[in-house]
Amino acid sequence: MLEAVVGQAAPDVPVEEATEAVDQYVLAVVAFVVVYLVGRYVVTPAVVRVVRRRNPNNETLTAATGRYFVAFVAIVAFVTAVSVAGYGPSLTRSAIVVAGASVALGIAGQDAIGNLVSGVFLVADRDFNVGDHIEWDEYTGVVVAIRYRTTQLRTIEGHEVTIPNSELSANTVVRPYNRRRVAFTERLPFGYVVDVDRAAAVLERAALGAEGVRERPRPTANVDEFDEDSVWVEVTYWVGDPREANVPKVQGEVADRLKRACDEWDLPVSPPADHRVVDPVDVTHGDTESRSRWSGDT
Fold first, then answer.
1. pLDDT tens, 238-271?
2. Architecture of domain 177-298
3. Do domains 125-170 and 177-298 have the same CATH topology?
């Protein structure tokens, strides 16, 4: 009787199948570890060396390639482990489920995926690198880091700005200078009686004398615009690396020197006049006095 009860409570266990399952799991773990370690410490450094050799001045691309390739290696190792464990056919049969989940994930995370894809293109752009000074929309600053989803910049005022990569990819990005200098301009209006050549020479010397303004290329002053009352002269000058130079201080000193040079050399700046009649003008003949009232600069 006891033997019958024990036999019913503990039926025969397929030991061979259990052992085979354990062996598959162990092999799956081993496969994952081997594939990941080989990819991480053998293949990835080789790929990074090739990228660095072809792009010696693009450290952003080199670092990003290493990060992205490690993620790719992890995915390959996981798929390999699943296949070794015997779940490969199950994944194949679940293709419809996987496709549906991919669509749902794509809709839910389209912004994040868009930023990630944009980041891949940004790091692959040899003309876009850490240290570049760029302008876009209403911002201007130096690229500090390019990450998976965002790019970090530092403005000339010292503010840290984080921009989604999709925004940089979708908008026009201007590089106003090479990586060692940046150009700035000042516009001044003069009356038509001014000697433009003389004014340009004075302004160029004044800008060049400001601390922080580069001698090469030299500052330039050229006629930029004609309006009804004034000739606008644009002064262009160059400042060194904005990461090292105090750009706002240089701009303030240049503006001050331009103003003092205009006063010293009798170059009257001619702001646009704003004439408005606020009361009617009565004009009579004979002994009656004419009356007028004006408001604004004359």
1. 888 766 778 788 989 999 999 999 999 999 887 6
2. 2-Layer Sandwich (3.30)
3. no
Cα gap 181→244, rounded to integer Å: 10
Single-letter code of the amino acid located at 250 = V
Three-state secondary-structure class, residue 208: helix
**Strand-by-strand arrangement of the 150-155 sheet:** 133-136, 139-146, 150-155, 160-164
Give dist(CA 86, CA 79) in Å, integer.
11
Q: Where are the domains of the chain?
A: 15-93, 125-170, 177-298
Instruction: Please say whether the beta carbons of 210 and 184 come within 8 A.
Output: no
What does the block give as tokens for 105?
A: 């994930």
Query: Tokens 């760029």 — which residue?
Result: 134
Beta bridge partners of 184: 237
Q: What is the mean pLDDT of residues 94-104?
A: 57
DSSP for residue 273: P
The CATH number fitting domain 125-170, selected from 2.30.30.60, 3.30.830.10, 3.40.50.620, 2.60.40.1930: 2.30.30.60
